[in-house]
Amino acid sequence: MTDEPKAEERRDESAPMPLMRLAAARLPLIVTALAAVSASFFFQVPALFSLLAFALVAATLTMTRPTERTRRNLSGMRRAPIVWPDTGMKAVAQSLPSPTFLLDIQGVIRFANEPAMRTFSQARAGDTLSMTIRSPRLREALQAAVSDESSTFEYRERSGAELVFVVSVRPVHHAAAEDPFILVLFEDVTERRAVARMRADFVANASHELRTPLASLSAIIDTLQGAARDDPAAQSRFLSIMHEQAERMRRLLDDLLSLSRLEMRVHQRPGERVDLGQVVRRVVDGMKPLAGELGVSISLAIRDEPLIVLGDQDELHQVFQNLVENGLKYGNSGERLEVDLGRVANGATISASVTDFGPGIPQEHLPRLTERFYRVDVVSSREKQGTGLGLAIVKHILTRHRGRLEIASTLGRGATFTVRLPAATTGENGESATPAATQNAAERLSADA
User: How far apart are CA 368 and CA 175, in angstroms?
Assistant: First the structure.
């Protein structure tokens, strides 16, 4: 950042030179005094008249000199160019939350606020902005600003994670400046664009997922009304397919409604005291018939009793039901599933893991597993009646509970899904209380989610 010149320096530039200005200001008085002396000596004019004339001239000059001096000073101030942004402009730019630059008419950076220095660390005061941030649109906008034209365009920064900015370039006129300054503001719209893209993808995926069973139902109905009208065997087979497709749409709509409800309540933390051990026991007991069909054995280990968290019992049941069901369906080749619960982090956090011993998940897919409709294998997922929303629902529920989901996998050795939730304790009055250590753990889990 570059500082403006001090006020004393600006005053010194416009201040008069002591000897020359003093002599010029007193010249009429000196001439009048010499004339009075010469008149008294050569023309024998009485000294009294000479003194009166001198006094009259002096009084007249004294009355007019302040006005002339003020006029000259004001004229000098109007002519003095301001090279750096003044303190007011800098204060406004510094208060803005978005990266902001103030440039002179040549496009040289004269001031950059703190967000600009953090985001564009390569941009330094005294450098030309268009040479530091290379963008043809930026160069065109700066040239337009010289002609007193404002511009807005989109710029993508790809130095690390891609950032998307809407850049506004505006000329700024100052009453005491010969040339305008240029204000360049970078508004970060990365998250906004990502959300818009996710919404568009969500609508497209949901439409596709619903269109497939609807198309199947429509084709079956046409067949039943036509060629299979009098074929009982075909009717029975087609009715079974229609039932499967209707169930597929029901599951999808149920998951969509669950996501919608969770999004509306994501900032409302539930306060019911729930024993996580009992929730997981009920989930495992309910999944044993499916495990028997798939030939998978389930083992449950609970290392501490009780395991109390503040939460919504139905939502936590949904979390572990989704995780255990996924483990059974996608890891059934390992023929066993392990569920483990216990306290970690000095008891402030409860950890629950679901481990299968199936084929595992490639590492490049792990960061995206909780995205809506994301599937590692689309065909396999649909064959196993998956909607592509199960892990997205798990993530939203854990976010509401200030928890997080960790996924680890090794190809050929299975995958582990670990849920971490802040533990709840009981205060002296018997009500729910969260100690400092547990509260800090909850904040860390929420920040990492």
Answer: 55
Amino acid at 445: L
Helices 232-264/190-225 angle, 10° precision: 160
What does each C-alpha distance from 324 to 378, 382, 413 come to in angstroms? 20, 18, 17
Q: What is the DSSP letter of 128?
A: B
HSE, CB side, 13 Å, CA atoms: give it for residue 282: 11
Q: Residue 112 burial by CB count (10 A; 0-12/13-18/19+): exposed, middle or buried?
A: buried
Q: What is the SS3 assignment for 380?
A: helix
Sign of CA dihedral 432, 437, 439, 444: negative
Q: Are 431 and 359 in contact (CB under 8 A)?
A: no
A 10 A CB-CB count for 204 gives 11
Average pLDDT along the chain: 77
What's the average model confidence in pLDDT over 200-222? 78
3-class state of residue 334 by DSSP: helix
- To the question of pTM greater than 0.85 for the whole model, the response is no
d(CA 186, CA 117): 12
Residues constituting the chain: 449
CA atoms within 13 A on the CB side of 291: 20
Task: Supply 342's token pair.
Answer: 């216990």
**Using CB atoms within 10 A of its CB, is residue 400 exposed (0-12), middle (13-18) or buried (19+)?**
buried
Inform me whether the pLDDT recorded for 319 exceeds 90.
Answer: yes
Rounded to the nearest 10 degrees, the angle between the axes of helix 390-400 and helix 232-264 is: 20
pLDDT bracket for residue 26 (50, 70, 90): low
Q: Write out pLDDT tens, residues 94-125.
A: 889 999 999 988 899 989 999 999 888 888 88
pLDDT at 51 (0 to 100): 61
Helices (H), 358-407: 378-383, 390-400
Asked which of 107-116, 196-205, 318-327, 346-355 is least confident by mean pLDDT, the reply is 196-205
Instruction: Give 305's contacts (C-beta < 8 A, 6+ positions apart).
Output: 277
Give yes or no for a contact between 192 and 161, defined as CB atoms under 8 angstroms apart: no
